[in-house]
Amino acid sequence: IAVVVLDGTKDVEEQDKRIAGYAREFNRGLIIVVNKWDAVKKNEKTMKEYEEKIRKQFQFMDFAPILFTSAINNERVHLLLNKITEVYANFTKRVNTSTLNDILLDAVLLNQPPIFNGNRLRLSYATQSEVAPPTFVLFVNAEKHMHFSYLRYLENKIRDTFNFEGAPIKFVLRKNED
User: What phi, psi does 4 have (nearest 5°)?
Assistant: First the structure.
């Protein structure tokens, strides 16, 4: 699990994004910690606004939880170990195949895959092949018909159902041999 620590008194820097990018590239669980929160001038909206700013800067890591801490005042630091434990549990979580297929079937019924060159993607079934990071194999009629936006939609449905907060999700597309 990677813990990216940001300085709450400064804007997000390129180096922060680069380090977080390495964690994402190597499919590590991720937690973003905003430290020095005691030194930030705040009102009732400051935390929400800062979180939105971070989400814009780290769009490719919207699954990462954000904690606001003050190491010098020992504020919310105790939450970090709990969050690490939680993210690790999500990172190593295994999902039942039949439940996974029920969720994906519902997702497909709610929102059909787009048509690609006159053909529609058909998702036959899915299974989780690995943990750390959670990796799902989707058996489809043609891998080239899977648009990244539809894959993102399926990822969001899985995240909404099974709580993979802090864990990246990988997909492997396989042609279904009928």
Answer: -95, 120
H or E segment to which residue 155 belongs = helix 148-162
Q: Which residue has the tokens 């020992």?
A: 74
Alpha helices in 3-127 (DSSP H): 14-25, 46-57, 78-91, 97-110
pLDDT in tens, 118-134: 888 999 999 999 999 99
Q: Work out the angle between the directed axes of helices 97-110 and 148-162 (0-180°, nearest 10).
A: 130
Q: In angstroms, rounded to a whole number, what is the distance separating the alpha carbons of residues 100 and 111?
A: 16
Q: Are 31 and 87 in contact (CB under 8 A)?
A: yes
DSSP three-state, residue 48: helix
